[in-house]
Amino acid sequence: MKRTRRHLLSVIAVMTVAVGLMAVIFVFNLKPKLGLDLQGGLSVTLTAPSNADPELLEKSVEILSNRVDSAGVAESQISREGNNNIFIQLPGTEDPQRLLRLIGKTAQLQFRQVKRVVPPGGPDYESLKVAESDDPAQELVLADEQRNKYELSRAEVTGDAVRTGSARPNQAGGWEVVVDFKRDGSDAWTRFTGRLACEQGVTRQIAIVLDGRVESSPQVDPEIQCNEGITGGTTIITGDFDETEAKDLALVLTAGALPVKLEQSEVRTVSATLGRDSLRAGLLAGALGLLLVMLYVLIYYRTLGLQTWVGLAVFGAITYGLVVLFGEWIGWSLTLAGIAGLIVSIGIAADSYIVFFERVKEEIHEGRNLRTSIDRGFQHAWRTMRAANMVTILAAVVLYFLAVGPVRGFALALGVATLLDLAVTYFFTWPLAGLLAQNRFFAENRLLGMRAALEGGQREGSLLRKIYRSEFKIDFVGLRRRWFLLSGLVVLISVVALVPGVRGLSYAIDFRGGTIYRAPAPESLSVRTVQDEMEKAGLENPLVQILTDRSTGETQVQVETPSSLSPEARDDVTQTLQRLTGSDVSDITTEAVGRRWGGQVTAKALRGLAIFLVLVIAYMSWRLEPKMALASIMALLHDLVVTAGIYALVGFEVSPATVIAILTILGYSLYDTVVIFDKTLENQALPGNARKSFAEIANDSSNQVLMRSFSTSLSTLLPVGSLLFVGSILLGADTLKDLALALFVGVAASTYSSLFVAVPLLSLWKEKEPRYAAMRVRAARVGAAGGQKGSGDGPEPSPKVKQQADRSEPVDETSLTARARPSSNGGRAEPGATRTATAAKAQPRRHQPRAKRKKKSR
Questions:
Q1: E-assigned strand segments in 656-710
Q2: Is the pLDDT of residue 850 over 70?
Q3: 668 vs 414: CA distance, rounded Å
Q4: Can you tell me the distance from the alpha carbon of 154 to that of 139, in angstroms, rounded to the nearest whole number?
């Protein structure tokens, strides 16, 4: 009764959270923030001096990207345009003026000694000329907001010495900015303030100068002794700041100062890059894929399938609520790729149900009752899910803190979906299954009952029985040469396809830059119309936007194309624009645009990936075995190479959505492999397997989880395949195809490699261990005596191993020495721990045939 009450309270709590989130969204009319492709936004062109250094402009693009990301604006697009322009596109925002001020700030911070302060009307006030530039190396005159003029020395400390800035309220009711210096900057600040502590009067003051204006002029604390200075590496900027101004100043100080002064030359409103038809097609395809998943789980699991429906609805409601709240809290913008990711995340949630239900099936097949099977099955499944999902969480954390731009947004979505999946599984899936098991209709009904669905077919040798009881006999290890040959051939084709001279990858504008065409446009012209006409002219995936000047109201159409277009193709673009807009050739302008996915984004993503792989190897070595970790990484590399190779063969362009799909594959590949290896490790510890070779254990484990792998992969491939084949091919939502193809190929390759690459590779290494090598020799001799070949075809054991096999005594199963499997609470026994007779008896009693039990009872 206590258990039932606990389960009921847990289910009610989760349902309350889901309903509560939906109620808050409905009452306050909250909606998710949408990205440029779905909503449009703001377009800003910043112009640098004509003689600006190109390297400084690239540095400015990096700094602006950091500022915009830190301000909570996700999925922005920033690139160089022409020789001295920086082109910025920001998703729709409620406060565009704030963002315009933020990206326009040069953030040149300087600390100077004050020599003299002259108020308005004071002596020499008119003769003091305020400097037009604030060269740090020169003495000059600057003013503050009250028009006081300051004679200042050269800058002693600059913004380059700043590590971070943070805003906080002060005792006067206003706001101030706390500046933390780098190590070198801290030393310079101590020397500077120590020298000023020797001064008296106004020359003891420090002018804090930001972008050519004196923000404040505090004096060094009188308690500071001459030549001692302010230590600790921290100072405070005070001024007439409100909360927003203080936070924005702290933000730009942390992101860094712009190396060149930029002026806003154009500000426009931009339309969404994706038409309503494409969005509708994507959502329709996603809905169709989810419907197919729901039908599959209903047919396969019956009442448990209905429970999956309820669980996915709860998961989807909470996920949507979090997307909306994150949009309000941190400005997370939802793009079409994000929508596709959310659809895929529901497939991830379905995976957890399948892992749970398959473990319950195993308990049912061992003869336990339904309630006991649900509890025991969940404990086993929960251990597996924690191990597998921890890999995904590691990926999300590393990428979030080390990457920028769209990769960071993807990492946030991935981490939130994974943690939410674990929470819903523990607090909703398991308790609800336990409650349904107590209801006679849901538990024992012949058509929909849980037991009937989990027991499967009863006729020996029937296909239905094999499917439901995982009674397959596929020799994954014995045929490994065949699998290795097939995988090697596919990898070789993929590598050859990736060679630039053969096929190579085709990169989108985001990676290699391109050309922007602009022409005056009538208000009736739509994005979809221009896209269709440009595709007829030979362009693939043209990026089209409608721009509206915020000051004049004039409308333009903008088309981005690759810079590698032939002269004939460029002429076709110009002629198409002329025909659509009725403009003259002289009205159509062209500008070169730089890559948006810059070297900084790539470098940080690769650094994050490298750290992730190191952490995964360490975690899996601890949680499973080092050899299992290496086999998993080899299978992962196989999946990545195959996915990239097929992508090159098909000829799709590599876009940011493609990169995000590749990163998603990391989790899928490792998840499948961890599930299989966890089962293998569990079977290694069973007393009944002590006399089996590793090849036999690996084959048994792989066959036992075969339907689990098939079902989990199918639950993901159905929605992804719907996005690819229905959404992009049948319904014309071309924007989906980059993401969907990479996901589809990657998930399919992951399913294959976990069984046909990782398992045989692990077996090859494990069979060289003395324990398993000796067993394999003995099994091979027994098989030869019986005229059969033993499983596995690894290298011939050494003479020493053969001698060990010859001397091996029969194994006493009451005192076996075997590696203990991980405990349900995440701990693990020491390798080589001895299972005594008592421990062997503690193992779950296997279900025996009825005839044997009757004979035993006599």
A1: none
A2: no
A3: 12
A4: 5
Matching residue, tokens 């070297």: 599
CA distance 257 to 64: 9
* Non-local CB neighbours of 519 within 8 Å, separated by 6+ positions: 556, 557, 577, 578, 581, 583, 587, 588, 589
Distance CA 607, CA 98 (A): 33
For residue 831, pLDDT over 70 is answered with no
Residue 264: enclosing H or E segment and its boundaries?
strand 263-270
Mean pLDDT of the region 835-852:
40
Residue 762 has pLDDT above 90, yes or no: yes
Residue 692, burial from CB neighbour count under 10 angstroms (0-12, 13-18, 19+): buried
- Cα separation, 305 vs 578, in Å, equals 57
Distance between CA atoms of residues 343 and 679, nearest Å: 29
Which residue is associated with the tokens 């322009």? Answer: 85
Which tokens in the block code for residue 752?
């294959």
Give the span between the Cα atoms of 697 and 686, in whole angstroms.
Answer: 10
**Model confidence at 801: pLDDT above 50:** no
The kind and range of the H/E element at 89 are strand 85-91
Tell me if 437 sits within 8 A of 450, measured CB to CB: yes
Contacts of 504 (CB under 8 A, 6+ apart): 497, 498, 648
Predicted confidence (pLDDT) per residue in 218-259, tens digit: 888 888 889 888 888 888 877 778 888 888 888 877 877 788
- The type of residue at 560 is E
Distance CA 34, CA 28 (A): 18
Place of tokens 């193709």: 569
Report the pLDDT value the prediction gives residue 564, as an integer from 0 to 100.
74
Angstrom CA distances, 527 to 227, 273, 576, stand at: 66, 7, 14
Which pLDDT does position 19 carry in this prediction?
Answer: 95
In this structure, what are the phi and psi dihedrals at residue 86, rounded to the nearest 5 degrees?
A: -120, 125
Residues 683, 690 contacting (CB under 8 angstroms): no
Long-range contacts of range 599-604, CB-CB < 8 Å, 24 or more positions apart? 600/62, 600/65, 600/404, 601/403, 601/404, 601/405, 601/407, 604/402, 604/403, 604/404, 604/407
Task: Kindly state the DSSP code that residue 205 receives in the 8-state scheme.
Answer: B
- In the three-class reduction of DSSP (H, G, I as helix; E, B as strand; rest coil), residue 499 is classed as coil
Tokens 């990163």, located at residue: 663
Measured between alpha carbons, how far is residue 204 from residues 145, 470, 553 in Å?
Answer: 21, 83, 53
DSSP state of 516: E
Give every CB contact of residue 39 below 8 A, 6+ residues apart in sequence. 91, 92, 272
Give mean pLDDT, residues 400-423.
79
pLDDT higher than 70, residue 541: yes
pLDDT of residue 789: 46
Tokens standing for residue 571: 């002429």
Q: Model confidence at 829, in pLDDT bands (50, 70, 90)?
A: very low
Q: pTM of the prediction?
A: 0.71
pLDDT in tens, 338-391: 776 677 777 778 888 888 988 888 888 888 888 899 999 999 899 888 888 888
DSSP 338-352: HHHHHHHHHHHHHHH
**Helices and strands (DSSP H and E) totals, the chain:** 30, 20
Side-chain-side CA neighbours of 119 within 13 Å: the count stands at 0
pLDDT average, residue stretch 830-844: 38
d(CA 105, CA 53): 19
Per-residue pLDDT, 190: 92
Residue 149: strand pairing partners: 118, 143
Q: β-pairing, 175-181 with 85-91? A: unpaired
Q: What is the DSSP string of 781-801?
A: HHHHHTT-PPS---PPPPHHH
Residues 295, 601: Cα–Cα separation, whole Å:
41
Q: Is 108 exposed, middle or buried (0-12, 13-18, 19+ CB in 10 A)?
A: buried
